[in-house]
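User: Structure please.
Assistant: Input sequence and predicted structure:
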Amino acid sequence: YSLRLMRVYGFWKAEINMKKIIMKVGLIIMALTTMVTMSACSKINNDTANDVCSALSEKYGESFVAVKIGDRFNTDSAKLYVHPADNEDILFTARINKDTGAVEDNYIEEKVNYQVEDTLKNAFELNGISAASRCMVVTRDTLSVETEEYTPQTFSEKYGFTHYTVYLVLKDGTYTAHDVLNAVKFANDTIGVKLVIAGYVFEDDGYSKCVSEIQSTPDISITMIEAISPISSFDVNVEQGMCSITEDELSEKLGRS
């Protein structure tokens, strides 16, 4: 009877050990499969990024860096965020047309938008205010842009739009409404085209988060900005040195009154 129990125990223990071995083998296979899949995806992404950057380099005669890839439905269709190698602040979108295989992009448009953003940043710095912005051209029809060099004014004249839309974020500080309006008037005078501005003020942490969002995606939206919880906001249109809001009105919106 004892011998029989020992044999049963032996068979049971061997069966348990076999199950453990099978489980370990299964886990190893799963890990290897995941590694192979990730490697293949990485290769596809790298190949896509290289193809897009090569096409852009041939088109514009510059070097480009792809920093993000998304919206992939198959290996022939993807949207990338790209910037020129010498200026990571000019972030634009490039997409492979899945039907034609051509690379479509908005580099020229974003180069012009960057000029507006940089002008605004410098104007606010002159008034002692930390600022960042995302500029865009809002038109009824998609712009078909020729590969040329433009200023914000010549770009507006050539493509027939009346203003630049700007999402502006400011770091909270001791500045006044007068300082803010001085900055936007100076920027408008430099740019030479009407600015339609949605402004948001943030405390330190919120400002840093918002700037990070602006720097990482060209597709920033009001929803994304408001999700970071600004402490105040305002709207102002600026054209030929004239603002759509008074200092008193802006002071009230900034909580300075």
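The longest strand covers residues 64-74.
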